[in-house]
Amino acid sequence: MVCKEQKTATERRMARIWATIRDIPQGSVASYGQIAEIAGIPRGARQVGYALRHLPRGSDVPWFRVIQASGKIAFPRDSRAFREQAKRLRREDVAILDGRIDMKKYRWQPDLDELLWKPSAAWDED
DNA sequence: CATATGACGACAA
DNA sequence: ATTGTCGCCATAT
Fold this sequence. Notes:
The radius of gyration is 15 Å and the shape is globular. A two-stranded parallel sheet has the order 1-2. The model has no long low-confidence stretch (mean pLDDT 90). 41% of the residues lie in helices and 3% in strands. It is built from 6 helices and 2 strands, in the order αβααβααα. By secondary structure, it is mainly alpha-helical. The structure holds a DNA duplex.
């Protein structure tokens, strides 16, 4: 019946993660753990990976701006995904030396505004 | 309910 | 700098 589209906790969690990733500005990157924290999910780095793994096709979420805290791309060097991600990052002038990105230089540093703005909850509307 | 898995991360050798 | 372990945590079997 009509009572079908009820968002599960998981769906809302993924929505928050995707929304956070959408805020990463072009030319910068963020680690899985960083996204998790901003999204209000401490120690939820793996959940971010899960959310990305489940991104609907054609999504506008800039998945390629999410990399490991170590500065490395999460996919194997020889994988298609790795090359695609590296390509997209370089396309926005993010330097990748020997498969690694300088976090000191490209790590996203959200404004206090954004940080205060998001975790306030209330997005679970609906 | 017990294990295994994974687009992670911190840390010890 | 690399590599291996172990901790985390939602899902999948």
